[in-house]
Amino acid sequence: MRIKDEVVNANTIGISGHIRPDGDCVGACMALYQYLCKVYPEKRVDVFLEQPSEVFSCICGIEQIRTDFKTDVEKYDAFIALDTVKERMGEAEKLFDKAVKTINIDHHISNSGCGDVNYVDAGSSSTSELVYDVLTEEELDVEIAKAIYIGIIHDTGVMRYSNTSPKTLQIAAKLISFGFDFSELIEKTFYEKTYVQNLLLGRALLESIQFMDGKCIVSGLVKRTLEFYHADSKDLEGIVSQLNQTAGVECTIFMYQTGIQEYKVSLRSKGKVDVAKIAMFFGGGGHVRAAGCTMNGTFHDVVNNLSLHIEKQMKEAGLL
User: Does the N terminus or the C terminus of the chain have fewer Cβ atoms within 10 A?
Assistant: First the structure.
């Protein structure tokens, strides 16, 4: 795919990603937004996302994001969904559905493609890597390169996760050749935590429980705890990954309460448990090693329901 060719006849172009946008989603959306504004200055390009974390304020054009999802465009000539299926686009889904042409770029194994035109590659490290693929390399600049780089480092854990391929590293090398301070980007957007984020991480670690012979770990935060710290979902970034680093653990569950008997669940695996398969069973999706879903019930209901599927896979893998 060459994205220029796909939108050449479109005068109005919309871009969006999934609810609660993470680094890959924000990086991919902003890189594509900057690129299309650059190569087609005569076209109207709008990007719609829920308010990203403050750590991404270093991305050029971030203030142009439409967080109210309101527009005077009756229907976009082209609308691009990044890093998601349309059902996880929140308020942007209706804009996607009304568009004359829809385009979907994603790397989640649970996505079979929801656009008229699809570029879905589950073998890619990130949607930001796929965005790099669809752009014309000669037309990149330092700000577009920074946005793509941020997306890649967030979905690869700074090149630590198994989704990092030789191609990923080659792209990263080309991106940093633009001369931006990549080490500062990593520190500011990936590692640096606010005081509140550290307190919540501490609570989650302190209250975690190991079970299944220590091969599974679970932790959760209820709504009143989040309210006490004046925190939201953006303050919980990285908790599930930290839990998953526990020695001997093969599968990790982290959840936080979003409503009455409703939890947003994040799952992580060392590779022997396919958490995407589990998340899809409960209406979510993701990757073999990282997935998520929303579930109803008490904390213990959610753990018990997930445990049935985790235990089955662990037994099949000879872990129990």
Answer: N
- Of the chain, the end-to-end C-alpha distance in Å amounts to 45
How many CB atoms lie under 10 A from the CB of residue 64?
13
- Predicted TM-score of the model (pTM): 0.89
pLDDT value for 109:
86
Q: 112: buried, middle or exposed (CB in 10 Å: 19+, 13-18, 0-12)?
A: exposed
In DSSP terms, which residues pair with 290 in a beta bridge?
Answer: 268
DSSP string, 87-124: GGSGGGHHHHHHSSEEEEEE--TT----SSEEEE-TTS
Q: Tens digits of per-residue pLDDT, 88-114?
A: 999 999 999 999 999 999 999 889 899
Cα–Cα distance measured from residue 195 to residue 318, given in angstroms and rounded to the nearest whole number: 41
State how far the Cα of 70 lies from the Cα of 37, in Å rounded to an integer: 20
CATH code for the part of the protein at 3-191 = 3.90.1640.10
- Measure the CA–CA gap between 161 and 239, rounded to whole angstroms: 16
Residue range 201-231, pLDDT digits in tens: 999 999 999 999 999 999 999 999 999 999 9
Taking Cα atoms as reference points, which of 254, 241, 257 lies closest to residue 289? 241
Q: In which residue ranges of the chain is CATH 3.90.1640.10 found?
A: 3-191
The CATH number for 196-316, chosen from 3.40.50.1000, 3.10.310.30, 2.60.40.10, 3.40.250.10, is 3.10.310.30
